[in-house]
Structure formats: structure tokens, C-alpha cells
Design brief:
five-stranded mixed beta sheet, alpha/beta, binds zinc ion, three-stranded antiparallel beta sheet, 16% strand, 321 residues
Length: 321
């Protein structure tokens, strides 16, 4: 069982504790200048004055900086304490947390919480994805549909035309290594070429691929050893040949989207996928604690910024309450 977030931790209430916590994550070997890279005695603490605590001065390039420079926290008017609380809540909520709920818990307007959540998701994005699978490893691949439009859907999974639960869906293709990681992709269209490119870019050689028996996924898996179950004749498990792992992952994602976000825009789908992939990959079953997961998400904000503004064109269509 996942332990609850310890909300009494001073990093959620005390700005100095939060800053020290972030400095420890950003600078495990002491502060360095984010502009020119010098460290050690070339960096001086700026004492007191109008700057407040947390400011440093570079003796080489003569610039002033804090640990937040070059991260999503730079130039943010939201205190670090609230950033950490939001990150911990998102990391510890298995079924995700809506921007409305986040806003209520942080005492911030919905739009601010929505914007923060997207920045936090950016920190969850894996910037250096290493190949999954390899010799002796099994990876399940499958597609599913969430939100969005029906026209991009593979013919075999297309629902009735017009209104109904099957319209307005976007295709998602994912790979899950058994007892390992997941990687989800929002694809423009489900076709063999698109899926094959993703398979080849993400899997190490000699991976055994398990899929269902449709032509598209079979084409995508070419060049790998494959096992397939034929869902169309009611076959779901044959020994090790099944896609239960990925189906269960998709179920969690869909429950999150339906139960928490209700609707997410096509424009931002990949960010929500990032969030669910991250929580799965840093899950309790792999001995990752809530606190370690949150620390990893905080580390992920280093070197990342989101520059788009809140407003009419930002696609805020998370219609939960
Ligand atoms: Zn410098």
C-alpha cells in the first residue's frame, strides 16, 4: 500500500524549508552558476538586503541567481511550498487529481492550478527514454482510444458513425514491459507505419512482443519475435500469451480521465499520458515511495519551462469539478 503524503513536512508550509529542499535536489554537490557553470568558491551567498534569502552571486560572470533559475519555478509568483504540495498530491494520487480539486486544496484559482498541473506534468516527462525490453524480456503492445475524434481510428475499432460513446476519440498506442515500464504515445493515426516506427524507436532487439492479432499491430511488431492472442474469436489468454498488463494500464488511464478529468483536450492529451506513465513507472510495486516519486518529479523540472500563457487559447477543457 502506498503511504499517504505527509502534509506536516515543513517543505509544504515553510518557504525556507522548501527552498533548502529544492537546493538539495538541484545542487546535491553545492550551488553552481546556471549561467556559466562555475562552482565551489566562485559562487558566493548574497547576504540579506533587499534580495531576501536564497540568492547567490557568481564571481566569474557576475550574475545573481537562485536555484529556481532555468526551471519551471523561475519567475513564478506561486511559492515553492505550493509547488511542492501540488507535486506531491499529483504524484500520490493514483487516479490523478483534477485542477479544480488541486486549486481548492492549495487555495488557488482553478486557472492557476490548471497551469501548475501542466508544468508539473512537464517535469514528469522522460527526457532520455532508454530502450525497453531486450533479450528475455516481454513487452505488450496495444492501442486504445480516449477523447477526441473518431476519424483517425483504425477501421476495426471504429464505432458507429454519428453521436454516441464511440465518437470523439483520440488514438493512443502504448508499450508495457511486464514487471517494468510503460510508454504511451498519442498518435495522429493508427496505421502500421506509425506504430512500427514507435516500436522500433522504443524496443531493444530480441524483445518478445505480445499483442492482439490485428494486422496493424502485427505489422508494427515485424522483425521481433511475437505472440498474439486472437481477440476476435474470444481468445484472451493462452499461457503467457496475453495483453492483460497493457489492458489494465489502459483501464487505469481511462478511469483517471473519466473519473477525474471527465474530458481532456486533444491538444494536451500527451501531457496527461506523461503523468500516468510517470506514476506507473515510479510505482509502489517497484519499491518507489510517494516521497521518492515526488522528488523525481521535482528533479524533472530542471531545465524545463513552459512559456504558454493561461487564457482563452490554452485549451483549458478539463471539465471536472
Ligand atoms: Zn557564472
Amino acid at each position: 500500500m502506498s503511504r499517504p503524503v505527509d502534509l506536516t513536512n515543513p517543505i509544504f508550509t515553510d518557504i525556507d524549508a522548501a527552498r533548502t529542499h529544492f537546493e538539495g535536489i538541484r545542487w546535491p554537490n553545492g550551488p553552481y552558476c546556471p549561467y556559466c557553470g562555475v562552482t565551489g568558491d566562485r559562487v558566493a551567498v548574497l547576504g540579506g538586503g533587499s534580495m531576501g534569502p536564497g540568492w547567490y552571486h557568481c564571481k566569474d560572470c557576475r550574475k545573481k541567481f537562485t536555484a529556481a533559475v532555468g526551471t519551471i519555478y523561475e519567475r513564478s509568483h506561486i511559492p515553492l511550498t505550493k509547488w511542492f504540495l501540488a507535486t506531491h498530491l499529483m504524484c500520490a494520487s493514483k487516479k490523478a487529481m483534477s485542477a479544480h480539486q488541486l486549486g481548492r486544496m492549495l487555495g488557488l484559482p482553478y486557472k492557476t492550478a490548471w497551469f501548475m498541473a501542466h508544468r508539473i506534468r512537464e517535469g514528469m516527462r522522460d527526457m532520455n527514454p532508454t530502450p525497453m525490453g531486450g533479450e528475455g524480456k516481454t513487452v505488450e503492445i496495444d492501442e486504445t482510444y480516449v477523447g477526441g475524434r473518431q476519424k483517425n481510428r483504425h477501421a476495426s475499432k471504429r464505432g458507429p458513425k454519428g453521436r454516441g460513446p464511440m465518437v470523439d476519440k483520440e488514438p493512443v498506442f502504448a508499450l508495457v514491459e511486464r514487471a517494468g515500464r510503460v510508454r504511451s504515445h498519442h498518435v495522429a493515426e493508427v496505421n502500421g507505419a506509425n506504430l512500427r516506427e514507435i516500436v522500433r524507436a522504443n524496443l531493444a532487439g530480441k524483445t518478445v512482443i505480445y499483442s492482439d492479432e490485428n494486422h496493424t499491430t502485427q505489422y508494427a511488431a515485424r522483425g521481433f519475435q511475437t505472440e498474439a492472442v486472437n481477440h476476435s474469436i474470444g481468445e484472451y489468454v493462452r499461457g503467457d500469451a496475453h495483453t492483460n498488463t497493457i489492458e489494465s494500464y489502459f483501464a487505469t488511464f481511462k478511469r483517471g480521465v473519466m473519473g477525474t478529468y471527465h474530458h481532456i483536450s486533444q491538444q494536451h492529451l500527451k501531457r496527461y499520458l506523461c503523468e500516468f506513465d510517470f506514476r506507473y513507472n515510479e510505482r509502489t510495486a517497484l519499491d518507489v515511495t510517494d516521497s521518492e516519486r515526488a522528488t523525481k518529479a521535482v528533479k524533472g523540472v530542471i531545465g524545463k519551462r513552459l512559456t504558454y500563457q493561461c487564457g482563452a487559447n490554452s485549451g483549458q477543457t478539463e471539465t471536472s469539478h
